[in-house]
Amino acid sequence: MITIEMPLVYQIGIAIAFIAIIIAFSAILREKDDIHKLIIIDLIEITGLVVVALIATDLAEALILPGLVVGVAEIMAVSELWLAKEKLQQKHSAKKFDIEVMKTAPPIIGLLLAAYGIFLTGFSGGLIAALGLMIFFLGKNMGEHFAKIENAAGYAWALWVIAFFIFMLFPSQWFLAIMLAAVGIMLKVMAKMSLVGTMRGGE
Amino acid sequence: MFEQILIRMPFGDIVHYLSGYTVVLFAFAAMFVILAIISLPEKPIDIVFGTDGYYTKDVPVDLMKFQRFMAIACGIATIGAITTGDIFNFTLFAAFIGVLNIGIVAAVKNKQVLNAAFSYGLVVMMATVPLFAGAAIIAATCGTLSIWELAVAAEATAGISVPIVAKLLLLVGVLGEGMAPFYIGKAEITRAPGAPYILMIHVSSLLLFLRVVEILLTV
Question: Where does the sequence pass through the membrane (chain B) (predicted)?
Answer without folding.
Answer: 20-40, 90-108, 120-148, 160-185, 197-217
